[in-house]
UniProtKB/TrEMBL annotation:
This is HEAT repeat domain-containing protein. InterPro entries: ARM-like, ARM-type_fold, PBS_lyase_HEAT. Pfam families: HEAT_2 (PF13646). Residues 1-108 are annotated as: Disordered. It comes from the Archaea.
Length: 427
C-alpha cells in the first residue's frame, strides 16, 4: 500500500507544480500585465494622499519586475507593423510613472529649491539702475505673501543685493523647518510655491546689466564723458573716445573697450593703441589674447615687459611652426629681458628658417646675458646666411662685455658689409 500512496503523492505534487507553472505563465502574460496596469491606473486616478501614491508606485514596481521576468513573444523583425507587447507595456509603465510624479506634492522642499534659485539670481546678477527698484519690489511683495501664509514677518534691511538675498534665505530656512505636510498643508505649500515662482519670474523680468547694449553699458559707466557733445556724433564715437583716453594716458577705459566691444575694427585699433602705450595695467587682457597666438598681443607683451608672460611665449618658439609669430615672439622675449629666456631663445639659433635664426640672435642681444656669447660666436663663424651672422654680431655688441666685443672685432675684414660694420663698432 505504501508504494501506491507514494505514487499518488508524487502524481499530486507533479500536478500542483504544473498548475503553479501554468498560473505563473498566466500571471506573466501580456493580457494579465495589461490588466494589472489598468488597475494601477484606476488606483492612481483615485489617489488622494501621498500614501495612496506610494501604494501605486509599489504596484508599478512589481509589474515592471514581472514584465522583466515574462517571456513575451518578440515582434517579427521583417514586419515593421508587428506588435511588440513588451515595448507597449514598458511605455504604459513610463506614462503612469510620469502621471504619478505629476500628482505628487507640492512639497516644502520644492519651495526651498525655488527660493535658493531666486537667492542666487539676486546675488549673482548685476542690476541696472532701472532694474534695482524692480528687484526690491519683487522681494517685498514675496515677503508679504509669506507673512500672510505662514504668519512669519521677515523684511530686508535695505535694497542691497546681500540684504535682499538674506531675507529670501531666512524665509527658506523657516519653510524648511516648518514640517509642512504635503497632504494636510497642501494649499499652503501650493501658495508658497506659486509665490516663490512669481518671485523668480519677477527677478528674471527686472533689467540686468547684460540686457543693455554695449553702448548703453559704456554710457552708464561714463566711457563717453571725455567726448564733447559734437564729437559724440562722429562715427564711431567709441574710437574717438579711445583716442582721447590715449592722449590722457588713461588705460582702464581703453582696456574696458577692448574687453567690451565684439568688433574686429575696435579690437585692432585698441590693440594698436595699447602697443603704442605698453601699459602694465593692460597685461591680463593682452596676455589672454596672446594665448590665441595673435601677433599684436605678443608685441604688446614685449612692450609691457612683464616677465610673467615668458611662460606663455616660450611655447610659441618651440618647433618650426609659424615663422612670423616666432620672429615677433623672439623680439618680445628680448624686450622682456628675463634670464629664463636665454636657453630657449638660444636653441632657435639652429632653426631651419634663417629669419628665425636671425631673430633669435637679436633677441639674445636684447637679453644681454653673457651666456649667449659662445653660441653667438659660433653663429658668426659658421652660419651660411650673412643676415644671421650680422644679427649675431649686432647682438654681441649689445651684450657689450670685452669678450663679446673681442669676438666681433675679429671680423673687420668679413665678406659681408653688415658684419664689417658691426666689427668697426666693436673696435
Amino acid at each position: 500500500m505504501s508504494n501506491g500512496d507514494d505514487e499518488a503523492a508524487d502524481e499530486e505534487a507533479a500536478n500542483e507544480e504544473a498548475d503553479a507553472g501554468e498560473a505563473e505563465e498566466t500571471a506573466l502574460s501580456a493580457d494579465t500585465l495589461d490588466q494589472r496596469l489598468d488597475d494601477a491606473e484606476e488606483a492612481l486616478d483615485g489617489a488622494e494622499t501621498e500614501a495612496d501614491l506610494d501604494e501605486v508606485e509599489e504596484d508599478l514596481n512589481e509589474i515592471e519586475a514581472d514584465l522583466d521576468a515574462a517571456d513575451l513573444p518578440e515582434p517579427d523583425e521583417d514586419d515593421e507593423d508587428a506588435e511588440d507587447p513588451a515595448a507597449e507595456l514598458e511605455d504604459r509603465i513610463t506614462d503612469l510613472r510620469d502621471q504619478l510624479e505629476d500628482q505628487r506634492g507640492p512639497y516644502a522642499e520644492d519651495v526651498v529649491t525655488t527660493l535658493e534659485a531666486a537667492q542666487s539670481t539676486i546675488t549673482d546678477t548685476r542690476w541696472t539702475e532701472d532694474g534695482r527698484p524692480d528687484v526690491v519690489a519683487a522681494v517685498d511683495s514675496y515677503l508679504k505673501t509669506v507673512e500672510s501664509e505662514i504668519d512669519t514677518a521677515i523684511s530686508a534691511e535695505s535694497g542691497d543685493s546681500e540684504d535682499l538675498a538674506d531675507a529670501v534665505d531666512q524665509v527658506a530656512q523657516v519653510i524648511e523647518g516648518s514640517a509642512l505636510d504635503p497632504d494636510e498643508d497642501e494649499e499652503t505649500i501650493a501658495a508658497l510655491l506659486e509665490a516663490a515662482e512669481t518671485l523668480q519670474d519677477d527677478l528674471e523680468a527686472a533689467e540686468e546689466w547684460d540686457d543693455l547694449t554695449v553702448r548703453q553699458q559704456l554710457d552708464a559707466e561714463g566711457f563717453y564723458d571725455v567726448l564733447e557733445s559734437e564729437n559724440r556724433k562722429d562715427f564711431p564715437a567709441e574710437w574717438n573716445a579711445v583716442k582721447v583716453y590715449e592722449e590722457l594716458g588713461e588705460v582702464e577705459p581703453i582696456v574696458k573697450a577692448l574687453e567690451t566691444f565684439d568688433s574686429d575694427f575696435m579690437e585692432e585699433n585698441v590693440l594698436d593703441t595699447l602697443w603704442r602705450m605698453g601699459p602694465e595695467e593692460a597685461y591680463d587682457a593682452v596676455e589672454q589674447r596672446a594665448q590665441k597666438r595673435n601677433v599684436r598681443p605678443v608685441q604688446i607683451l614685449g612692450k609691457i615687459g612683464n616677465a610673467d608672460a615668458t611662460e606663455t611665449l616660450h611655447d610659441f618658439i618651440d618647433g618650426d611652426g609659424d615663422a612670423a609669430l616666432q620672429k615677433v615672439t623672439l623680439r618680445a622675449l628680448g624686450e622682456i629681458g628675463s634670464e629664463e629666456s636665454v636657453q630657449p631663445v638660444a636653441q632657435r639659433l639652429d632653426a631651419d628658417n634663417y629669419e628665425i635664426r636671425s631673430a633669435a640672435a637679436r633677441s639674445l642681444g636684447l637679453l644681454g646675458d653673457t651666456r649667449a656669447i659662445e653660441p653667438l660666436a659660433d653663429v658668426l663663424e659658421d652660419d651660411e646666411a650673412n643676415e644671421v651672422r650680422a644679427s649675431a654680431a649686432w647682438a654681441l655688441n649689445q651684450i657689450g662685455t670685452q669678450r663679446a666685443l673681442d669676438v666681433v672685432a675679429e671680423y673687420a675684414d668679413d665678406r659681408a658689409y653688415l658684419v664689417q660694420s658691426e666689427a668697426e663698432k666693436a673696435v
